[in-house]
Automatic annotation (TrEMBL):
Sulfatase N-terminal domain location: 4-282
Sample GO molecular function, one term: arylsulfatase activity
Record-given protein name: Putative sulfatase
Domain of life assignment: Bacteria
Organism for this UniProt entry: Alkalibacillus haloalkaliphilus
Family to which the UniProt record says this protein belongs: Belongs to the sulfatase family.
Length: 436
């Protein structure tokens, strides 16, 4: 049986801000993809930032296990010896290509070929419309091939990363803000431009779907749509709250391959993607991966493949080490250094929304946080010191301890090496003083 082609679409900082996930953003093309395929409603990343999260997708490992504990352009890299999705698919006859954005490095080298890709198409700006133009050309070239070997192609979009300044905002009255942010005109303006960025991305997804069908690949191509982490707004990106870890994940299979047209609420993590793809195409899963294949879930053999996952944050453009664990009901977070209650990367700190929330967020953090996700889905009420939850805290604390020890987390040995982004040197505020 011929192995299926795989088109992997990954956006930037989108979280689940799509119409199909109940947000009021107009994304009809992505919504249609979800309705025809499988929508996963409880799919999370394990790191709320670009490079580490993408490293986990590529390797099936948590950040400190694949080596990329911070951003690629700030000296953090995947360990050279580790297998990646494209490197292993190459071995079973796939032709692997990357078009557009990537944010992983190996041994400090930004080189798609070192990540395992056989072909790379650079796209200035990595805007979705331009990436899609190249993808259409890619499919036309595929149609000229004489051999029937399958392809794996990753399409990387810049959207919905900041800045949003070039986007015409939607009407401010159309915006529905998340519960964890204040409803002010500044925040609404910020979201109004973010909405439009997502709508532009949606148009590109529609073109991708149509091109696959028009070029005759729809009967043997799996389409995957996901993003790297939560939205680029305060109390989301850069935090271990669900708003930072939540990611969209949609899969559409060729007709007749698997039952689809439904939504799954099974708890999943993006470290699970590599082993799942490999199970789908009969590729050996490397030893030592942290992920668990959810193919049995897709096949209807089980209802759950995991009951918790771990999350971490070490470096972004500042040092802010955290470790945590999420179950269906609880979120436990441990802060390993003094810092602000809510860390904001530089682009969020200087955003319209960031200026509004600094006074509230730049107060001292606490050692431990616990949230009841059923009673408090926005994670606004830290109950770690509540005596009624003492046993829950102890159990989840032990889980994190055991995980860190078993995986030889570098954080156990002290401060993880790295450096702050130069942009912070120009910021005239009391960020450092509020850490104390």
């Amino acid at each position: 049986m011929q192995r299926p082609n795989i088109v992997f679409i990954i956006s930037h900082d989108t979280g689940r801000y799509l119409g199909t996930y109940g947000r009021n953003v107009e994304t009809p093309e992505i919504d249609e993809l979800a309705s025809e395929g499988i929508q996963f409603n409880q799919y999370f990343c394990s790191q709320p930032q670009c490079s580490p999260s993408r490293g986990s997708i590529m390797t099936g490992r948590y950040g400190h296990n694949h080596g990329m504990m911070g951003l690629a352009h700030m000296g953090h890299s995947i360990y050279e010896q580790l297998e990646t999705i494209p490197s292993e698919l190459n071995k079973i006859g796939y032709r692997t290509s990357l078009i557009g954005l990537y944010h992983e490095s190996v041994n400090d080298e930004f080189d798609p070929y070192k990540l395992g890709y056989q072909n790379y198409q650079q796209v200035p700006g990595n805007w979705a419309t331009d990436v899609t133009d190249h993808f259409v050309d890619f499919l036309k070239e595929e149609n000229k091939r004489d051999d029937d070997s399958p392809f794996y192609v990753s399409l990387g979009f810049e959207e919905t990363h900041r800045p949003f300044d070039d986007y015409e905002p939607v009407d401010l009255d159309e915006v529905v803000l998340p519960d964890y942010l204040p409803d002010t005109e500044e925040v609404r303006k910020d979201f109004a431009q973010f909405y439009r960025s997502g709508m532009d991305m949606d148009d590109a997804v529609g073109r991708i779907k149509r091109a696959i069908k028009e070029q005759g690949f729809d009967d043997n191509t799996i389409i995957i749509f996901t993003t790297d982490h939560g939205i680029a707004f305060p109390r989301a990106k850069g935090t271990l709250y669900d708003s930072g870890l939540e990611t969209a994940f949609l899969m559409k299979f060729p007709e007749g391959m698997y039952e689809q047209g439904y939504q799954s609420d099974a708890l999943l993590c993006n470290v699970d993607l590599m082993p799942t793809i490999f199970d789908l195409v009969d590729c050996k899963v490397p030893e030592g991966v942290d992920g668990v294949s959810f193919l049995p879930l897709i096949e209807g053999e089980v209802e759950q493949t995991r009951d918790h996952f771990f999350a971490e944050m070490t470096w972004h453009d500042k040092y802010h080490p955290m470790r945590g664990v999420r179950t269906q009901k609880y979120k436990y977070i441990r802060n390993f250094e003094d810092g602000p209650k809510v860390y904001m990367p530089y682009d969020l700190h200087t955003s319209l929304t960031g200026e509004v929330v600094r006074d509230e967020y730049y107060v001292p953090n606490v050692d431990e946080e616990l949230y009841d996700l059923e009673a408090d889905p926005a994670e606004l009420n830290n109950i770690a010191s509540d005596e009624a939850y003492r046993e829950v805290v102890a159990d989840l604390r032990a889980k994190v301890d055991q995980w860190m020890e078993a995986s030889d987390d570098p954080l156990l040995k002290g401060r993880v090496p790295g450096y702050e982004a130069e942009e912070w040197e120009t910021v005239d505020d009391d960020y450092e003083s509020r850490k104390k």
